[in-house]
Amino acid sequence: MGVVVSLGEGKNNKPSIDSLLALVRDDLKNVNDVIIRNMESPVTLIPQLAGHLVASGGKRLRPMLTLGAAQLSNYSGDRHIALAACVEFIHTATLLHDDVVDESDLRRGEASANAVFGNQASVLVGDFLFSRAFELMVEDGSLKVLKILSHASSVIAEGEVLQLMTTNDTETSEDTYLEVIKSKTAQLFAAACQIGPVISDRPRVEEDALESFGLNLGIAFQLIDDVLDYSAKQATLGKTIGDDFKEGKISLPVILAFRRGDEQERKFWRRTMEDLEQSDGDLDYALDLMRKHNALSDSVERARHYGAIARDALAIFDESPTKLAFNELIDFCIDRAY
Amino acid sequence: MGVVVSLGEGKNNKPSIDSLLALVRDDLKNVNDVIIRNMESPVTLIPQLAGHLVASGGKRLRPMLTLGAAQLSNYSGDRHIALAACVEFIHTATLLHDDVVDESDLRRGEASANAVFGNQASVLVGDFLFSRAFELMVEDGSLKVLKILSHASSVIAEGEVLQLMTTNDTETSEDTYLEVIKSKTAQLFAAACQIGPVISDRPRVEEDALESFGLNLGIAFQLIDDVLDYSAKQATLGKTIGDDFKEGKISLPVILAFRRGDEQERKFWRRTMEDLEQSDGDLDYALDLMRKHNALSDSVERARHYGAIARDALAIFDESPTKLAFNELIDFCIDRAY
């Protein structure tokens, strides 16, 4: 392990996703091929719009989790390829519908699909990708995998609706917020990881461990995502700062600043987030309040808590490059905040 | 069979859906219970919105097809109940997304879900119902049923996208239109029927027969639906006449009138349907042109053609009340036009 440690102490000691990427690179290429093949349709708008999404290329974090979890489970077949593609299809479908719901014009710094192709196409192509994911799962033939991913899908939808209900509600509790991000984000991380041991017929305890790793990693990931929306770091990710603020989306930084604030400050939050009456300087003042109450740094602390649970969930596995890469991924998800 | 014939010649000899309804009434009650139970969620907006849909009550035509097809297959278990509910969930999910795509304010004469709860909730609750349908299918445990319905779902989505691409395009051919309605409507009718013989382990020839019955019934049904949008009969169904015209949706009556018209008339169709430049009197003039070219009556003739194929598909089955009810359903779907 000496080599790995020395790499970690080298000039580039920021945790990164690259170790995991290196371990699953070949598999991920095959996943991409499955994705492209299954977006094909005589209805040309479907591959066009789907191609736009592939080109604007996310990190493919979720399929990488499936591939890594399969590796950690010593899986030797090829079912993980199509199933990792299913996970990405479900994720992409929810992104498409999310952008319609949020009326977003940007996604990862690029024009979002709904901005280019319209809301109608985004809704319908999302439905197509979602259905195609289930077709691929049926081809794979495991009812257990179908159960995991159909359940994840309905929990995601429930989480999105719950998020919609909390929008503009400054009274939202940290618990409700946690419920939202667990459902809308962490559930798919958990399912993506669980598939690895399931197709490898590993003992239940390993399945539970990888599910827990995925769930807690997902919670930490979303917490940091929500911090990034108020962080200067954001600009480097090609996103504009304060999107959540403009929409009145209630994330943990807002919840903490609101609860820790005085009546004057709460009035400010109600005006800007509930009534959406915002003017120049409001976002800056919101950031001031978050700093004053340590709302961003404490949100990162909460993320560290879930990261620690994710790390302990992996403890039952023997040391291996994949385990190291998964642990580094936890650090990467959290350190993105800085 | 004498009784049935004499009923048919009685004072009320309009074909109706009631014979089928009488045969599946008890099952349908159980389907409704499954539907209501599976719409439950701690996220209150979900049962609220879904309850709105249940209350605004469609005919439940598609689940009735599954129940009738199970009856025709001498099915004796109870799997048809949950699977009929799945079919209705998939249908309801597509309706919810359809209304968002069409920006409809009315559905069956009532305020549509998107008008009451907003587009965002409609998109997300649609996703929830769709996922819940797959969870129910996984519980049922038949990979064959999962294959049939996941394939139907992706074909429906493809059909909806194709329809979106043909909107406002007066050059759309009858073949393309047929492709759209086959995909977006008839595929689910076919799948709904096919489930009956599949869960009853009936021979392939019966499965094919019921699939063909459903497919051709679905085509006839949608053809008449599109005729009704230009028919005086429409008002009695609680719909406004000319919705498709206002949206520039290219259905068969428009295709026939456009193709059979002279250059002056085609200019009118291009202005109103492609450029959506419409003023008072345009809908009346469109109706005049349709009458002049027999566009509505010939669309009904096309529906009769598919109805005849549906009827012949059933010919291999012995005479039975269910077969009679299915045949009456074909007539009902077509005679709605008058």
Summarize the structure.
Chain A has helices spanning 2-8, 18-38, 45-55, 61-72, 79-102, 113-117, 119-140, 143-166, 174-199, 204-228, 243-247, 252-260, 263-274, 282-292, 295-313, 321-335; strands at residues 106-107, 110-111.
Number of strands of chain A: 2
Number of domains of chain A: 1
CATH top-level class of chain A: Mainly Alpha
> Structural class of chain A, please?
mainly alpha
Q: Give the overall average pLDDT of chain A.
A: 90
Quaternary state of this entry equals homodimer
Can you name the CATH architecture of chain A? Orthogonal Bundle
Tell me, briefly, the overall form of chain A: globular
Q: H/E order of the elements of chain A?
A: HHHHHEEHHHHHHHHHHH
Per the CATH scheme, the topology name of chain A is: Farnesyl Diphosphate Synthase
Radius of gyration over C-alpha positions of chain A, nearest whole angstrom? 20 Å
Q: Name the strands of the widest sheet of chain A in spatial order.
A: 1-2
Number of helices of chain A: 16
Question: Which protein chains make the most extensive interface, counting residues with beta carbons within 8 Å of the other chain's beta carbons?
Answer: A-B, 42 and 42 residues
Poorly predicted parts of chain A:
1-11
Sheet with the most strands, sense and barrel status of chain A: 2 strands, antiparallel
Q: How far is the N terminus from the C terminus of chain A?
A: 27 Å
Describe this structure in words.
Helix content of chain A is 73%, strand content 1%. In chain A, a hairpin with a 2-residue loop joins strand 1 (106-107) and strand 2. Chain A has 16 helices and two strands. The two termini of chain A are 27 Å apart. Chain A has helices spanning 2-8, 18-38, 45-55, 61-72, 79-102, 113-117, 119-140, 143-166, 174-199, 204-228, 243-247, 252-260, 263-274, 282-292, 295-313, 321-335; strands at residues 106-107, 110-111. Chain A has one domain: Farnesyl Diphosphate Synthase (Orthogonal Bundle). The first copy, chain A, is mostly helical. The interface between A and B is large, with 42 and 42 residues.
